[in-house]
Amino acid sequence: MSIKDRLRNTKGFSKGQKKIAEYILANFDKAPFLTATKLAAEADTSESTVVRFAIELGYDGFPDMQRDMKEVARQTLTSAERLIRISDTVDMDNVLMSVMKSDIMSIRETMNMIDVDVFNTVVDKLSAAKRIYILGIRSSYSVALYMSIYFRMIFDNVHLVGLPGAADVFEEIISVNNSDAFIGITFPRYSRRTVHAMEIAKNNGAYTVALTDSMDAPITEVAHNVLVARSGLTGFVDSLTAPFSVVNALIAACGIKKDKELLKKLQNLEQIWKEHSIYTMENKKK
């Protein structure tokens, strides 16, 4: 049952709880971003009533209910609407700590949600693939790019799909076959193009992996395996801290899996970097 359905089912609610339910339903574009104290003030009730109400609805507490409301908001509010609501409800002096706490919570939730057996299967399948294709569009492109940089150190044939100036996404994956792996990365609001591209890859026989925020995300329907990583709502865009953490784990696990080949590549790279003075080793003068 969705949070909105729970709020509409007012049977058994106290007078104060009904006030809270009515306020949230009437102001769902704003309510998810309010603290328990502010929500109580807006609904003309007490903070303790708000906390008890969350528990009455089946949540562990108000933070748990608030995360559920934010999840719905992510799917329905535009970036502009998110910015307006965040600006109205978050004190500028608390932005830094608020965002960092939200990112910590996203990583904790990801640790509880991700299936370790699935993660290990993904590592095995990627390690056995002839070619690995990685696709992420818009903000997810940053995750895809980061993954591709380090995967190229580990694997011989890694393709980052959708590079600026490259051919159309669908043209780039036309030769994908059953010896390949395809990783699709998408978070709310989900990229239809990423979903369609991975569907083509799967139909061509490739092993497909989705990195997304929920098992209900559209891309899961065309994925052999799904890695779930929470993308926290910290402003007018989603935070990708947890997805980057999962990618770090994939890089580490694949590196360990192919440690002998990786060691040789890294030794060669270090020599090249040294010969061409790629990195500065000088410390700042004190």
What does this structure look like?
The protein is of the alpha/beta class. It folds into two domains: 3-89, Orthogonal Bundle (Arc Repressor Mutant, subunit A); 112-275, Glucose-6-phosphate isomerase like protein, domain 1 (Rossmann fold, 3-Layer(aba) Sandwich). Helices cover 55% and strands 9% of the residues. The protein has 13 helices and five strands. It has helices spanning 3-8, 15-26, 36-42, 47-56, 62-76, 79-89, 95-113, 116-128, 140-154, 169-172, 192-203, 241-257, 259-275, and strands at 131-136, 158-161, 180-185, 207-212, 225-228. Strands 2-1-3-4-5 form a five-stranded parallel beta sheet, with helices on both faces. Strand 3 (180-185), helix 11 and strand 4 (207-212) form a beta-alpha-beta unit. The model has no long low-confidence stretch (mean pLDDT 86).
Can you tag this structure with a few keywords?
five-stranded parallel β-sheet; 286 residues; elongated; Rossmann fold; alpha/beta; single chain; Arc Repressor Mutant, subunit A
